[in-house]
Design a protein that fits this description.
With 350 residues, the chain is α+β, with helices and mostly antiparallel strands. It folds into two domains: 144 residues, 60s Ribosomal Protein L30, Chain: A (2-Layer Sandwich); 185 residues, Alpha-Beta Complex (Phosphoribosyl-aminoimidazole Synthetase, Chain A, domain 2). 31% of the residues lie in helices and 22% in strands. It has nine helices and 14 strands. Strands 9-11-8-12-10-13-14 form a seven-stranded mixed β-sheet. Strands 1-2-7-5-6 form a five-stranded mixed β-sheet, with helices on one face. A hairpin with a 2-residue loop joins strand 3 and strand 4. The radius of gyration is 19 Å and the shape is globular. It starts with 12 loop residues before the first helix and ends in a 13-residue tail after the last strand. The mean pLDDT is 93.
C-alpha cells in the first residue's frame, strides 16, 4: 500500500479492500465473539441477535437531483441493516459542521433526514453535533449508525430456502451463494452516481437522471415474505461490479451475468458513453442485489415489481461452479471478465 492515504482507499473496490485488510482487521480482532464479526466484511455485524451498522457520509454537492446528504445518510444505514434480513429499529446521527455553513442548508438536510426516517418507520433516537474551524472539512459530514433485530419473516424465509437446499446460516450473508442460485437486481443501475456527477460538473444529464436514494427496508420485508432469499447486498460504492465480485469471492462460486437483462436507463447509458464510464461500476443508493434459490426467482421478481422501488427489477445472472470470478455474457454473444473496480470512478457520492 502507498505510504499516504488516497481518495481510492475510501471509495470501495480493490484499494479499500487492501486498506481494511492490511490496516484494520488485525487491530480489531477482539470482535471474533460476534456471530457475524467485522472480518466477514458484510454490510452489518451481528452480536447477540442485534444487527449493527455504521456509515459516514461525505458527498459533493450536499443537495442533488433526487436527494441530499440527509436522505442519503438515513437510507444508507437502514439499507445496510436491512440487507442482513433484519428489521431496522433505531438510528443514531452525528453531525460535523464547518464554521460558517449555511443555516438554511443545514435545516434542509436535517428536515430531509427526519422525513426519510419517518418514511422508513425507523426513528433517530440519539446523536451528536460538532462544529469545526472553517477549512477543516468541506461544509458538512454526517455519521449514522443503525441497529436492527431478527424478525419472523427472516425465519420463514430461511425455512423456504431449506425446502430446496441445505442452508445452515441464520442471516443473509455475502457468503451464502451456491451454484444454481439466481441473482436479481431491484431496478435501474448507476442513477445515483451519474445524477451527482452530472449536477456537480454541469453536464446536464441530471434532467434525465435522478438519484435513486431510498430506504429499502419495506421492499426487503416484502420479498422475505415470499421466501427463498439467501443473500442481499446494496450495490453502493463500486456499483454492481464491486458487489457481485464480493458475493462471488466470499461464496467461492463463479457468477455469470447476462448483459442483455441488466436494467440501465438511456440517460445513464448516454452519460457513461460520453464520459467513458462503465455503468456497472457506478454507485447506487436505492437498489438491492438478491441471491435467491432458482425455484423462487420468478415469484420473488414479481413481488419486487409490485413495489414502488422495484418496477424495473430483473433476473440478471446465476451462480455457477464451472467458472471463476464474475463473467459478463455480452449482448453480442461474447464473454468478458467483470473485475472489481480499483475504486469508485465517481468520488464523493456517499
Amino acid at each position: 500500500m502507498n505510504e499516504k492515504i488516497t481518495l481510492s482507499h475510501g471509495a470501495g473496490g480493490q484499494h479499500m479492500d487492501a486498506f481494511i485488510k492490511e490496516m484494520i482487521l488485525d487491530e480489531f480482532a477482539q470482535n471474533m465473539a460476534a456471530e457475524v464479526p467485522l472480518h466477514m466484511l458484510d454490510d452489518s455485524a451481528v452480536i447477540n441477535d442485534i444487527v449493527f451498522s455504521t456509515d459516514s457520509h461525505t458527498i459533493q454537492p450536499l443537495i442533488f437531483p433526487g436527494g441530499d446528504l440527509g436522505s442519503l445518510a438515513v437510507a444508507g444505514t437502514i439499507n445496510d441493516v436491512s440487507v442482513m434480513g433484519a428489521t431496522p429499529i433505531a438510528l443514531s446521527s452525528a453531525f460535523i459542521i464547518e464554521e460558517g455553513f449555511s443555516v438554511k442548508t443545514c435545516k434542509h438536510i436535517i428536515h430531509s433526514m427526519g422525513q426519510t426516517a419517518k418514511q422508513a418507520q425507523t426513528p433517530i433516537i440519539t446523536g451528536d453535533t460538532k462544529v469545526v474551524e472553517k477549512g477543516a472539512i468541506q461544509e458538512m459530514m454526517i455519521n449514522t449508525s443503525g441497529i436492527g433485530q431478527r424478525s419472523t419473516v427472516l425465519d420463514e424465509n430461511i425455512k423456504e430456502v431449506q425446502r430446496y437446499r441445505s442452508f445452515p446460516q441464520r442471516w443473509l450473508l455475502d457468503s451464502n451463494l451456491k451454484p444454481g442460485d439466481k441473482l436479481i437486481v431491484s431496478g435501474n443501475l448507476g442513477e445515483h452516481g451519474i445524477a451527482l456527477l452530472s449536477f456537480r460538473e454541469g453536464y446536464g444529464f441530471e434532467t434525465q437522471v435522478q438519484s435513486d436514494v431510498a430506504p429499502l427496508n419495506s421492499l426487503i420485508h416484502n420479498v422475505l415474505q415470499v421466501g427463498g432469499i439467501v443473500s442481499a447486498k446494496d450495490p453502493t460504492r463500486g456499483g454492481l461490479a464491486n458487489t457481485v465480485n464480493e458475493l462471488s469471492e466470499k461464496s467461492h462460486v463463479g457468477v455469470l451475468l447476462n448483459e442483455e437483462t441488466l436494467p440501465i436507463s438511456q440517460g445513464v447509458k448516454a452519460a457513461c458513453d460520453l464520459l467513458g464510464l462503465d455503468p456497472l461500476s457506478i454507485g447506487n443508493e436505492g437498489k438491492v442485489i438478491l441471491g435467491v434459490v432458482s425455484e423462487k426467482a420468478n415469484e420473488i421478481l414479481e413481488k419486487i415489481k409490485k413495489h414502488p422501488l422495484g418496477k424495473n427489477a430483473a433476473i440478471i445472472g446465476e451462480a455457477q461452479k464451472d467458472i471463476k470470478g464474475v463473467v459478463l455474457e455480452t449482448t453480442i454473444g461474447g464473454k468478458r471478465i467483470l473485475q472489481k473496480p480499483i475504486g469508485d470512478p465517481v468520488p464523493r457520492i456517499c
